[in-house]
Amino acid sequence: MTFRIGNHNMKRSGIAILNVSVPLASSGTLYVNGTAYPFSGPDVNVTLMPGSYPVSVSTSSKQYNLGDLTLVAGGYRAISTQNIYSSNFTETGLPPGTRWYVNLSGAGSYSSSSSTISVALPNGSYSYTVATMNKDYYNHTAGILTVNGAGQSINVTFNPYLYSVLFKESGLPQSTKWAIFYDNSTVNSTIGSQIGFRSINGTYSFWVQIVLGYASNVTYGSITVNGIAVTWDVSFSKAIDYTISFTETGLGSGSLWYLNLTNGQSENSTSSTIVYEMPNGTFGYHDSAGPRYSTVRGQVDVNGSDMNVFLNFIELGMLNLAISQSGTSLYLNGNYQGKVGNTFTKYILPGSYILSDSLNGYQAFADYFVISSGKNTSISINLTRMAFYGFLEGSLAPGNATITANGLLIPAFNGSFNASLPPGTYYVTVSANGYHSLEFQVSILLLNVSWHNVSLVPYKSILLSGYVKPYQASVVAQNFTAYVNSSGYYFLWLQPGNYTVSVYAYGYFPVSDPISISSSREMNFTLQAEPAATSSDSLGGISVVGFGVKVGNLSNSGGVISATFSAASSNGSLIITAPFPSLGGVNISELIHSRVYVGNQQYSNFSVVISSNHTVILYVYDLHGDPAISWLYSPDASLHVFNPLLGYIVLAVLIAAIAGIYVALRRRK
Fold first, then answer.
1. Is 610 exposed, middle or buried (0-12, 13-18, 19+ CB in 10 A)?
2. Which sign, positive or negative, has the C-alpha torsion 517, 431, 438, 586?
3. What is the pLDDT of residues 234-254, one digit of tens each?
4. Which runs of E-coded beta strand occur in 445-589?
């Protein structure tokens, strides 16, 4: 392929021709002085004005730098990439990811953030220099790269610019040992008057170790290194000691405890007080009474007077976990505990905790529990394998909000939540102290992520809590679902107002209780187990079960669910259950305030309960006789009341008609 530039009538003696052969490529781009000349085929010709040009070739597999080529008037210059050889420059010493450069005379500049720079060059000699943008490091390497039928490998070493940091002591008796803690890790000590370090540019913290009987003009601080050496004077003077009494509370009489100071002093005692004689200065301390008690780290500032310091030990509680699977990821109040085996034991501070445990392919476990001082709390975690599942994920604000899906606690930490759930419809409740509670519906699809950004609005909130038996029961206030832990404790943050609290567990009679809540309230519930069912009927996902009554003829039409029943005594009962979506056109509040009729008389011995998965349950009790029951769940529904007079008229007409037919048949005979 041939390219020409300039005047096509230019004389041959006033131009030059460059021929570049690329035998290992079928196409590419030739760059001359930055101008691109795409080509196909094994070679390319370019007509140029005489001069010196940087020339390179780029193909799909390789980059060739041909250097600066000089073209003379009337000349023909041919060069082949087949005679290009690769040389490697390899650096050591720079922090990972630092960009550095190789500059080659007549061949340009190369850069990389990795440890190796490769250059492809024809035979020749090239002078090179090496540099980096990180001015904390230097390299004085320079030399000649000679390419003669093969590439070369050149090693480059970068060294940090290190500046002297010198601490000079005065005031200590000769041969007294003193020390400096530098940059949180390095400790140098000496009996001489100087302690030195070497550092690159930056800011570094330091701590002067206390010398017993002496006070220093500085105990801690920071030093900034910026291109020059730094000297810091540390002067000691004879210290006046003060009595510092550390007194503990919380331990039993005669308990052994320890107290360690950063100046190297360490004492233990079985009494309640440990006394130190200490000079002016700032001292860190750490106490310990064994693994069953909390520890305290702090500091005391001694400033010209005696002091009393009080330490409060708290007896910890023990958490014991038995886990059905090993290798699970365990969190306590959002803090990662690591991957654990089939058992886990830990002493922790008394208080409330949310525990979550998860393993790929299993439904995540989450529980709320309370640790008491000096008590053992045991929890069994049985992770359930899921053959089919999707994912409920999202962000959460505030990060300490409680989130449940159909009453199941969803693990949440660091402002996000993530749970694997079987496909289906879920009703999600999010509540937190000081925020407006929120409920929304989600659909979990197989192997799909249902993502939600949940941000609660600040608002006055009130805690509704208590205990429920059995612990498997769900507790729902209007349409907000409380979390119930494995001990039957439930809690939910609500806004002031009126609610109907529904409590339901399979196999138990449900309970509903209307409340008005304006301050924190505790409500306990104990459900009564159902007796053996007498009869049942079902229709399109709706079911009716009788206890001491015979039920049948279930129907659902016009916002009314009806059934017939017959009861031999006056204490019969029945339960009608219906999925919320099957009761179209109504909301939870309307369902809670729906009406019930027995025969054509409005009936009051019933309750409407909402479960955690929004199943709607009607519980009717004290039934007797054998009429029909009608549940008007829609506010627009009406009862079709039977008129006795009209019934008698219809019955008389039917009897007359039958008699007429009989007489006619007799006459024919």
1. buried
2. negative
3. 999 887 888 999 999 999 999
4. 449-455, 462-469, 474-477, 480-481, 483-484, 489-494, 497-504, 511-517, 521-522, 525-526, 535-539, 542-547, 549-557, 560-579
